Amino acid sequence: MIKDFNKWIDTVLEKDLPPETVAVAFNLYEDGDNNWSVELVGTSIFDANDEDWVCDEVFDTRDNPFEWNQDISWEDVLEEVTDILKKYLEEGKHADKLKMYQGVGVGFVDGNVWILYQNEQSKNEE
Question: Regarding beta strands 57-60 and 103-108, do their DSSP bridges make them parallel or antiparallel, or are they unpaired?
Answer without folding.
Answer: unpaired
